[in-house]
Amino acid sequence: MIDVIPEPEHEIVADTSRSQQLKTSCIIDRASYDCAMKQMDFKPTLIYATRSMKFTIKNTSLVGLDYNFKIVNSQTGVLDAGAYTIIPKKGSISPGCDENFIVRFAPVEVESDFSRILSANINHLSPTQEPLIAELSGTALRPVIHFELPVSGYRERKAKEQSFIDDKVKIIEFESLGTNIRNTNRFMAVNPTSQGYEFEWEELVDETNKKSLFKCATPKGLILSGKKTEMVFEYVPGAVGEHESRWVFKIPSEKIS
Fold it and tell me: How far apart, in whole angstroms, are the C-alpha atoms of residue 235 and residue 180?
């Protein structure tokens, strides 16, 4: 199929015509790819938490590979990403190049079936190439408590100093523009269980420090089922430097800490 572009309106001036040689080239091919990923099984994940898995697609054709991903319910075939997202979702891969993709599993509720089908619509795919289809599966677990805390790079910074912090430890960071200044950090705690409970905060006292620089302004309280409660911590540094304090969140009725 050839499309002819009409010439724009013009006027030929006498004795000004000349011949000009033009060199043209074209590449004709169908899209093809190489991808080892056929299935993604996510480890059990707490609701409100996120797990990620990565895979790579290599464009093995001589033309650009245009793709557009979709996630459907494995039972109904209806568009339903559920707890899954893929980044990037749409784009193009240059010939001979590859691109990395990240699939995230972030459940917000416990469901009996998280199975989904991930597929890529690839333009002009070679008839000898199988469509890119993968099975996604995961399991969600309900935590007793969830803290809505911002992302912190403190754990990574300490790891570079060979001071490792357990992944189960939650991190609350303060920045103080001077000493003897009261700094406050507020965040929400969510009770995703089916019943309310009372809570307590207890500081793990460091015998080397006679006076703690940190204080919990909400040491006790009640969180109703499915509700949020604000937690407040304060930090008053007495000297310049980096300071730490460890606290334990307790639910006495459940004997959980």
Answer: 9
Mark whether 129 and 156 lie in a shared domain.
Answer: no
Give the domain range for residue 54. Answer: 33-141
Which residue, 141, 164, 189, sits at the end of a domain? 141
- Whether residues 137 and 150 share a domain: the answer is no
Domain count for the chain, please give it: 2
Question: CA 31 to CA 15: how far, in whole Å?
Answer: 48
**Is residue 252 classed as helix, strand or coil in its secondary structure?**
helix
Q: What is the pTM assigned to this prediction?
A: 0.73
Secondary structure letter of residue 217 according to DSSP? S
**Could you tell me the strand order of the sheet in which 116-122 lies?**
39-41, 132-137, 116-122, 65-73, 90-93
Amino acid making up residue 212: S
Domain boundary residue among 141, 171, 188? 141
Neighbours of 130 (CB within 10 A): 9
How deeply is 247 buried, as exposed, middle or buried, from its count of CB atoms within 10 A (0-12, 13-18, 19+)? Answer: middle
Cis-peptide, bond into residue 6, ω within 30° of zero: no
- The tens-digit pLDDT sequence of the chain (257 residues) is 567 788 888 888 887 778 888 888 888 899 999 999 999 999 999 998 899 999 999 999 999 999 999 999 988 889 999 999 999 999 999 999 999 999 999 998 898 899 999 999 999 999 999 999 999 999 999 999 999 998 888 888 888 877 788 888 899 999 888 888 899 999 999 999 889 999 999 998 877 666 788 999 999 999 999 999 999 999 998 888 888 889 999 998 877 76
In DSSP terms, 55 is beta-bridged to 101
